[in-house]
Specification:
single chain, alpha+beta, Nuclear Transport Factor 2, Chain: A, 2 domains, globular
Length: 411
């Protein structure tokens, strides 16, 4: 089903009902918690309004709001743009930031069908950052087709063979009436004659059949990334099993959840970027530095089982019990005989980059950069000092053997 507004999504409707019920009991709460309640009401409204504003401005241009987009940043982007063309350009600039695209691409690893195609996704990312937009577009189109075919084993149809109505998924922001189903109409549009006019829509059929020859631009390539993330959200919603609650959560349980969200918001607002080096205050006690040091120690001892427990939660869930074996296969040929942590760079509320000098057996020492993410026990990003653990994101040694300074260039 298509939703006219994000506020019509069942999860939004249920949340609003809970808020309405809690409002009657607000007088029982301490005064400081009453203020948090009001703030949370505003956050929920902001989320729904931002999604609707996004689709109002950019939906007609076939852009889709997906779950990895940051609400406040995208809301500000839309509000400050003078028209849809400027909003589109600002959204493209957002995707072009390596950390933004990289973090969103990491979320694709939660699907086995996309982990099989990870080498293609990484090539598309490299092509995009290097301005090879035609190559990025072609690769992502093939990845999406194969992914949709494999993720829905009952139907076995690629993305191109689906009807728009197939994407009217239950309770997902991509099911907005200007969302994935709407964009899919132009995606499948046929092109019977060759055209060398500039193309700014993701016309899959015309591009892959060679009828549209002038699509080498950042608009089409960025729409390919946007569509890839939206299709992943569709797959997530589709794969969810019906889970009718046996009992309605109490207002206390709901309130506890809201308080957790408020604490996250408060911690995010207080967070400041920081860089620590040996000799700096807090360097030795920094949580990410300590975790990274333990990971290096385990690597040196070839303790692959414990190393596996320190990896990104999506990787742990994806590989399951076979992950220690995968870690052994990745690290077995790289014997670590020495290491030194050179710098800890907290670049985002849940992201930390650690520069390390490593020495492998029979090799010259080299400098690498390890990317860490701070996660809750449920695998959601969190902000220190709230409860959570640092997990290694890019974990294979071959993947992070490039010098640390190359990280910023998107290589």
């Amino acid at each position: 089903m298509a939703y006219e507004s994000a506020h019509d999504l069942p999860s939004f409707v249920e949340l609003q009902k809970q808020l309405d019920g809690m409002r009657l009991l607000r007088f029982l709460l301490p005064r400081d918690q009453r203020a948090i309640f009001k703030e949370l009401e505003g956050q929920i409204k902001l989320l729904g309004d931002t999604v609707d504003s996004f689709y109002k401005v950019l939906g007609p241009r076939s852009w889709i709001f997906h779950e990895a987009l940051p609400v406040e940043e995208i809301g500000g982007l839309i509000a400050s743009a003078s028209d849809s063309a400027e909003a589109e350009r600002r959204l493209i600039d957002y995707y072009k930031q390596p950390d933004n695209l990289g973090f969103q691409a990491l979320r694709l690893r939660r699907f086995e069908a996309l982990r099989r195609r990870l080498h293609l996704i990484e090539r598309a990312q490299e092509d995009y950052m290097e301005g090879r937009y035609y190559a990025c577009t072609l690769v992502l189109l093939t990845v999406m087709d194969g992914f949709v075919n494999e993720v829905d084993k009952a139907t076995r149809q690629g993305l191109h063979a689906r009807e728009p109505e197939d994407f009217d998924i239950y309770d997902s922001v991509v099911a907005h009436h200007y969302g994935l189903a709407h964009a899919h109409r132009s995606f499948r549009q046929s092109q019977k004659t060759t055209s060398d006019k500039p193309v700014y829509e993701l016309h899959r059929n015309g591009i892959l059949h060679g009828m549209l020859t002038n699509y080498d631009n950042d608009v089409v390539a960025t729409k390919a990334w946007n569509r890839m993330f939206a299709v992943a959200d569709w797959a997530s919603a589709r794969l969810k099993q019906p889970e009718p609650p046996e009992t309605r959560p109490s207002w206390r349980e709901v309130w506890s959840t809201f308080l957790d969200l408020a604490r996250q918001r408060q911690a995010t607002g207080a967070w400041q970027p920081s860089t620590l080096e040996p000799g700096d205050d807090r360097f030795e006690e920094d949580g990410c530095r300590v975790t990274c040091g333990e990971y290096l120690r385990l690597w040196g001892r070839r303790n692959y089982g414990h190393m596996a427990r320190m990896l990104y939660s999506a990787v742990q869930k994806g590989y399951g019990a076979s992950l220690p074996r995968e870690v052994r296969d990745e690290y077995g040929a790289h014997e670590l005989v020495g290491s030194e942590i050179l710098r800890v760079d907290h670049v985002a509320p849940a992201i930390c980059m650690v520069d390390v000098r490593i020495e492998l057996k029979d090799q010259e020492p080299r400098q690498v950069r390890l990317r860490w993410i701070y996660e809750t026990g449920d695998g959601d990003p969190a902000v220190p000092p709230l409860p959570g653990e640092w997990h290694l994101v890019v974990w294979g040694p071959v993947a992070f053997m490039a010098p640390a300074e190359d990280e910023d260039s998107g290589s």
